[in-house]
């Protein structure tokens, strides 16, 4: 799930009380400070949106991991259970005593 960076929004720039400053150099400095502040605010809002997307992506991955982990554990338990049942059946077959051929011949004679 790719996450793309959110572009910073375009903010309406207002320069409060800049026109009241008499010194043009100070007025320019204050205007540049406001420009920088608006730029930082726009970048911050863009990054907040990107972080929100990242959080959503991580949560989706965590949910998918939880589901796949649960499925893997169930599959492992099923395989182990089947293996143990098969092994027990093989051991039961091996534990049955074989009838010697002489006993079989005697049984046939009696019939």
Provide structural commentary.
By secondary structure, the protein is mostly helical. It has one domain. 74% of the residues lie in helices and 0% in strands. It is built from 2 helices and no strands. The longest helix is centred in the middle third of the chain and has 72 residues, at 24-95. The mean pLDDT is 84.
Domains (count): 1
Mean pLDDT: 84
The helix content, as a percent range, equals over 70%
| Biggest sheet layout | none
How many helices? The count is 2
Regions with little confidence, pLDDT below 50 for 5+ residues: none
Principal-axes geometry comes out as: rod-shaped
Order of helices and strands: HH
How much of the residues is beta strand, in percent? under 5%
Distance between the termini: 77 Å
Structural class estimated from helices and strands:
mainly alpha
CA-atom Rg in angstroms: 40 Å
Tell how many strands the DSSP assignment holds: 0
Q: Characteristics of this structure?
A:
111 residues; 0% strand; mainly alpha
């Amino acid at each position: 799930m790719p996450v793309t960076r959110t572009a910073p929004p375009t903010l309406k720039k207002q320069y409060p009380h800049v026109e009241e400053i008499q010194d043009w150099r100070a007025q320019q400095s204050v205007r540049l400070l406001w420009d920088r502040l608006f730029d930082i605010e726009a970048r911050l809002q863009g990054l907040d949106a990107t972080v929100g997307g990242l959080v959503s992506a991580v949560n989706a991955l965590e949910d998918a991991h939880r589901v796949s982990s649960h499925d893997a554990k169930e599959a492992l338990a099923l395989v182990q259970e089947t293996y143990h049942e098969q092994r027990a059946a093989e051991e039961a077959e091996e534990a049955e005593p074989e009838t010697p051929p002489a006993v079989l011949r005697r049984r046939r004679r009696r019939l």
